[in-house]
Design a protein that fits this description.
- By secondary structure, the chain is an alpha/beta fold.
- It has 2 domains: 50-149 and 304-314, Rossmann fold, CATH 3.40.50; 153-302, Isopropylmalate Dehydrogenase (3-Layer(aba) Sandwich).
- Helices cover 41% and strands 19% of the residues.
- The protein has an 11-stranded mixed β-sheet, sandwiched between helices. The protein has a two-stranded antiparallel ribbon with strand order 1-2.
- The protein starts with a strand and ends with a helix.
């Protein structure tokens, strides 16, 4: 009897389980390459000029270090906006030097968000990056500034590097729109498709998620899915292939779809996962992060500048990936 190694999180443990044959599982290869897809995004930016980015209220070590590491990776030129004494204290605690970077002092987090938006409106920065403040406070300043708005509704996309999935996984919207209407979901879908195009997916497959695969008037998300798919059929949503409603298992597993008799160009091959509401999306994304070892990147779309919208608990690699996406967005828009 041979012993095999089982991967649990990022740890390998021995198990006295007989192994019939030494098969190679492709998913396990991806599992051992956590962050592989995000690293590829960072490499794509190597020939691009960094973007001036207002880093809003970076008063803790994680948010400040993420911005400085992104600067060292030539992704951004940070403009630190917030209480100067607290930013310098965070720098001292992290033992990093920030004297080379512009610091715009403000009294508190609300003023920092407002000041950063003003910098963007005046074209003094090309992107915004959330530091150590609440998302609603950060986004509130952006949403209420007409100069930064476009015809599209602002929405958020998690660009997820899940070790067991063979491609990037986009989840939207899990951070901004709480209970979006079907009209709002049109913009949410179109924003995500546009991002996928910039990240080299010519025709992304879009799964409109629900708890079931059939349309039921009792479950609003299934009706929304049917409407969105018909709108795509009529050219009201373009650039991707939509299908739904699909449960999450059918969206990621061709075998699960086959067992349930689902014939679909999206099932088992989805790139973009459109969730029913913010609660469902946030729980899905956080479960992938904390239970499946996925690495997260976050970006808000629909404004005139890219918005790096990361969690205060995000790691430096997640912040680097988010900045790389913002850089690709900004340079594509300028090109």
């Amino acid at each position: 009897m041979r012993k095999r190694l089982l991967a649990v999180g990022n740890t390998k443990v021995r198990s006295d389980v007989p192994v019939a044959s030494p098969r190679v599982n492709k998913a396990s290869l991806y599992f051992r390459e956590s962050g592989h897809h995000h690293q590829h995004l960072v490499r794509r930016t190597m020939t691009l000029e960094p973007i001036r980015t207002a880093v809003v209220h970076p008063i803790d070590t994680d948010s400040l270090l993420g911005a400085i590491e992104a600067a060292k990776a030539n992704l951004i030129i940070p403009v630190l906006v917030g209480p100067a004494s607290k930013i310098r204290a965070a720098a001292n605690q992290a033992k990093i030097e920030i004297s080379a970077y512009e610091l715009v002092p403000t009294e508190h987090s609300y003023a920092a968000a407002a000041q950063a938006v003003e910098l963007a409106c005046d074209h003094r920065v090309e992107a915004l990056m959330k530091g150590s403040l609440h998302t609603d406070e950060f986004m509130g300043a952006i949403v209420h500034e007409e100069k930064l708005r476009t015809a599209r509704r602002i929405s958020h996309v998690f660009v997820i590097d899940a070790p067991c999935y063979p491609r990037l996984l986009f989840v939207t919207d899990a951070a901004i729109n709480i209970y979006p209407t079907v009209e709002e979901k049109v913009d949410i879908v179109q924003n995500a498709i546009g991002l996928a195009h910039i990240l080299s997916l010519d025709c992304p497959k879009v799964a409109i998620l629900s708890a079931v695969e059939t349309v039921s008037p009792k479950i609003k998300s299934t009706v929304d899915a049917a409407v969105l798919c018909k709108m795509a059929d009529r050219g009201q949503i373009t650039g991707g292939i939509l299908d739904g409603p699909l449960a999450f298992d059918n969206a990621v597993s061709a075998n699960a779809a086959k067992v349930k008799g689902i014939v679909s160009p999206v099932a088992g091959r989805a790139d973009i996962f459109v969730v029913p509401d913010l609660e469902a999306g946030n729980m899905l994304a956080k479960q992938l992060e904390y239970l499946a070892g996925a690495q997260m990147a976050g970006i808000a779309l629909g404004a005139r500048v890219p918005i790096v919208l990361t969690s205060r608990a995000d790691s430096t690699p997640a912040r680097l990936a988010s900045c790389a996406i913002a850089l690709l967005l900004a340079r594509n828009a300028n090109g």
